[in-house]
Design a protein that fits this description.
180 residues; 21% strand; globular; binds magnesium ion; alpha/beta; binds guanosine-5'-triphosphate
Length: 180
C-alpha cells in the first residue's frame, strides 16, 4: 500500500467515475480552465489507480469498476476517504445505488474514512432535482446514522460543474489524514 492517502472511488457501472477521475487529474495539474470535449472512457474492469497532485499532498485515487461490486470490500482496508458516485439522471439505478451506499457506510473498515457522495450528470436535462433524489435516497436519515462524516455535492464530470469543490474536499481530507 502506498504511503500516501488512498481515496476509493466507488459507484455503479456507468455513473461516470473514470471521466470524473480524468477531469480531476487534469484540473489538479492545470488549475481551472476550459473544459474540453469529454475524453472517451471504457467500462473499468478491475481497478484504475490515478495520482492527484493537490496543493499540499499527493493523493492516490483508486477507482473500483462498478462490475467489481462484489469484491469492493477487499479494498476497504487502509483507505482514508471514499467518493461514492451516483448517476442522478438514472432513476432506475437509484435503489441499487442506495443499497450499495448503505453497505459502504456500514462497512467496519470504513468507519473512520471521510465520505463524499457525488450526484453526477447534473448537466443532463432529465435529471431529477436534488431534493427529489435526496428524498428517494432518504439521504438525511442515511447521513444522520452514518458513523463517518458524510458530505454531498452536485457535479457534472462532463461540463466540469462542481469539480473544483471536489478537489477542495480531497485537499481537506488529505491534509487531515494520518498519512504522511
Ligand atoms: N452527460 C454526462 N455524461 C457523463 C457524465 N459523467 C460521465 N458521463 C458519461 O457516462 C459514461 C460512463 O462513464 P464512465 O466514466 O466510463 O463510468 P464509470 O463509472 O467509470 O463506469 P465503470 O468503470 O463501468 O464502473 C461515459 O459515456 C461518460 O462520458 C456527466 O456528468 N454527464
Ligand atoms: Mg470506470
Amino acid at each position: 500500500m502506498s504511503s500516501n492517502g488512498v481515496c476509493l472511488l466507488l459507484g455503479a457501472t456507468g455513473v461516470g467515475k473514470t471521466l470524473l477521475l480524468k477531469r480531476l487529474q487534469k484540473l489538479s495539474l492545470h488549475g481551472s480552465g476550459e473544459v474540453d470535449a469529454p475524453p472517451h472512457t471504457l467500462p473499468t474492469v478491475g481497478t484504475n489507480l490515478t495520482d492527484l497532485t493537490l496543493k499540499r499532498k499527493k493523493l492516490t485515487v483508486r477507482e473500483l469498476g462498478g462490475c467489481m461490486g462484489p469484491i469492493w470490500p477487499s479494498y476497504y482496508k487502509d483507505c482514508s476517504s471514499v467518493m461514492f458516485v451516483v448517476d442522478s439522471a438514472n432513476i432506475a439505478q437509484v435503489s441499487s445505488s442506495c443499497i450499495q451506499l448503505l453497505s459502504v457506510l456500514s462497512a467496519e473498515p470504513l468507519h473512520n474514512a471521510s465520505v463524499l457522495i457525488l450526484f453526477n450528470k447534473r448537466d443532463m436535462p432529465c435529471t431529477m432535482s436534488l431534493v427529489e433524489i435526496k428524498s428517494l435516497f432518504r439521504l438525511d436519515d442515511i447521513v444522520a446514522s452514518a458513523p463517518q462524516p458524510v458530505t454531498t455535492l452536485e457535479v457534472s464530470a462532463r461540463s466540469g460543474m462542481g469539480l473544483q469543490e471536489v478537489l477542495s474536499w480531497l485537499e481537506s481530507v488529505a491534509v487531515h489524514s494520518k498519512w504522511p
